[in-house]
């Protein structure tokens, strides 16, 4: 009888463990596997309103004299960025796109920065656009690659001033790049709707979307990510980078963001002894302030840029 009960117990534990591993692997595939169907991945993205000027700005961008650049990622993969020169300007914005997008998807931002007199570099992060990879790195390797793009621009433009700008995952990439030994001509950064910790973000989304707690699925998914992609979720955390940062930063976030909650902003501005400007936007969801509050948004950015140029 005891042997039978023990066998049932062990079988039950095995089924639970296998089920947990299967579920954790599914979470990895949904969140990070580039080959997962877009419809599955984006089921939670806020799509109630869209940038109505995007198509116009995308068509404008296609007509510009854009130069393709290529370097090696820290993963030794070919990664690409696109360079838009602005006459004789010697100031640069590097725009970093969000999750499952690409550099050209930043067309509205690129056009605004170009009109403000900046040269613009817009990379395709790993797993996006032409920068092929099997998985998204959510700002981990991306932040190190961003530092490589900065080094390239700096080496070719000795007296240039560089500002880093990112939205959502791109904002997290910018934040995590701040302690990647950036060159001294990086004079400021702007982040819009970024997350400070990937582990905390996934904990929130697991509870919101599946009504599940962090343990054990997220812990297992993080371990699977380490095995398959080389990093743990906890590795993507901007706290230390912000604590060590010395350059001015502009923080932007929608107050009704349900994808990357404003709690992320409230936490990140606690860290570091540097000049911070913080602006939130009433009733705005994820990365939508730039067109919902278009004039206010770009006035804020323009004024900030004049201070740091």
Automatic annotation (TrEMBL):
SUPFAM superfamilies: alpha/beta-Hydrolases (SSF53474). Residues 1-23 form the signal peptide. It comes from the Bacteria. Keywords: Lyase, Signal. Its EC number is 4.2.99.20. Gene3D superfamilies: alpha/beta hydrolase. This is 2-succinyl-6-hydroxy-2, 4-cyclohexadiene-1-carboxylate synthase. InterPro entries: AB_hydrolase_fold, DNA-binding_regulatory, Hydrolase_4. Residues 88-190 form the Serine aminopeptidase S33 domain. The keyword NAD does not apply. PANTHER family: ALPHA/BETA-HYDROLASE, ALPHA_BETA HYDROLASE FOLD-1 DOMAIN-CONTAINING PROTEIN. It comes from Oceanivirga miroungae.
């Amino acid at each position: 009888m005891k042997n039978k009960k023990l066998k049932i117990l062990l079988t039950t534990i095995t089924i639970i463990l296998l089920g947990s591993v299967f579920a954790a692997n599914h979470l990895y595939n949904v969140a990070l596997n580039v080959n997962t169907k877009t419809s599955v991945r984006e089921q939670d993205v806020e799509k109630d309103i869209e940038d109505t000027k995007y198509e116009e700005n995308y068509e404008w961008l296609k007509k510009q004299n854009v130069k393709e650049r290529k370097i090696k990622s820290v993963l030794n993969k070919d990664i690409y960025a696109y360079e838009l020169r602005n006459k004789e300007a010697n100031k640069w914005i590097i725009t970093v796109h969000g999750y499952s997008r690409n550099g050209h998807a930043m067309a509205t931002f690129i056009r605004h920065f170009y009109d403000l007199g900046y040269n613009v570099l817009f990379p395709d992060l790993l797993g996006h656009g032409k920068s092929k990879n099997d998985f998204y790195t959510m700002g981990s390797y991306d932040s190190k690659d961003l530092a490589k793009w900065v080094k390239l621009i700096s080496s070719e433009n000795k007296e240039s001033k560089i500002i880093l700008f990112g939205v959502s995952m791109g904002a997290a990439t910018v934040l995590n790049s701040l302690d990647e030994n950036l060159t001294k001509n990086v004079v400021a950064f702007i982040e819009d709707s970024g997350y400070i910790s990937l582990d905390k973000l996934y904990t929130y989304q697991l509870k919101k979307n599946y009504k599940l707690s962090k343990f054990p699925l997220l812990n297992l998914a993080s371990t699977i990510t380490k095995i398959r992609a080389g990093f743990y979720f906890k590795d993507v955390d901007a706290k230390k980078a912000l604590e060590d940062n010395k350059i001015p930063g502009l923080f932007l976030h929608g107050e009704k963001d349900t994808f990357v909650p404003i709690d992320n902003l409230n936490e990140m501005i606690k860290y570091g002894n540097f000049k911070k400007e913080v602006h939130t936007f009433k009733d705005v969801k994820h990365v939508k302030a730039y067109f919902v509050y278009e004039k206010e948004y770009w006035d804020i950015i323009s004024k900030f840029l004049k201070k740091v140029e």
